[in-house]
Amino acid sequence: MPDRVVFDTNIWISGLLWRGKPYQCLLLARSQVVQHVHCAEIVEELSRKLRGTFGFSENDIRGVLYDLRRVSEPVTITGKLHAVEDDPSDDKFVECALLAGAAVIVSGDHHLLNLREYGGVRILSAAEFLAQIA
């Protein structure tokens, strides 16, 4: 069974818009080299940012969310974990990873990256994650 991993919103958006390392991370999930996991709160944040910040149409957002759900396993979180003191909105990624038994969170967010590890879940940049997989 492939390692479980959580990609944060930054990784999804960067992977959708550019062909760099975040895109390569998404390809690993699409090809089932890793098992991506998500929660409703991650999906909601991704939708909101694609709509508000990047001007995606509702049809384009539906396509992105279809892709995410196709390559990902859903997890239900409680919203009670408080792990990221500097940005509590990032707690959802940590809780999702913990409840799913994920080994890694891949992030471009410095609040998460500064943690480096939480509850046995490593927090890596896209470049670090790809180097680990290679």
Structure description:
With 134 residues, this protein is an alpha/beta fold. It has one domain: 5'-nuclease (Rossmann fold, 3-Layer(aba) Sandwich). Helices cover 50% and strands 15% of the residues. The chain is built from seven helices and six strands, in the order E-H-H-E-H-H-E-H-E-H-E-E-H. It has a six-stranded mixed β-sheet, with helices on both faces. Helix 3 (40-52) packs antiparallel against helix 4 (58-70). The longest helix is centred in the middle third of the chain and has 13 residues, at 40-52. The two termini are 17 Å apart.
Mean pLDDT, rounded to whole units? 96
Number of domains: 1
What does the radius of gyration come to? 14 Å
Shape annotation: globular
Annotated CATH architecture = 3-Layer(aba) Sandwich
CATH topology: Rossmann fold
Low-confidence stretches: none
SS summary, helix count: 7
Secondary structure elements and pairings:
Blueprint: E1 4-7, H1 9-17, H2 21-30, E2 35-38, H3 40-52, H4 58-70, E3 72-74, H5 91-100, E4 104-106, H6 110-113, E5 117-118, E6 121-124, H7 126-133
Parallel strand pairs: 1-2, 1-4, 2-3, 4-6
Antiparallel strand pairs: 5-6
Helix pairs in contact: 1-2, 2-7, 3-4
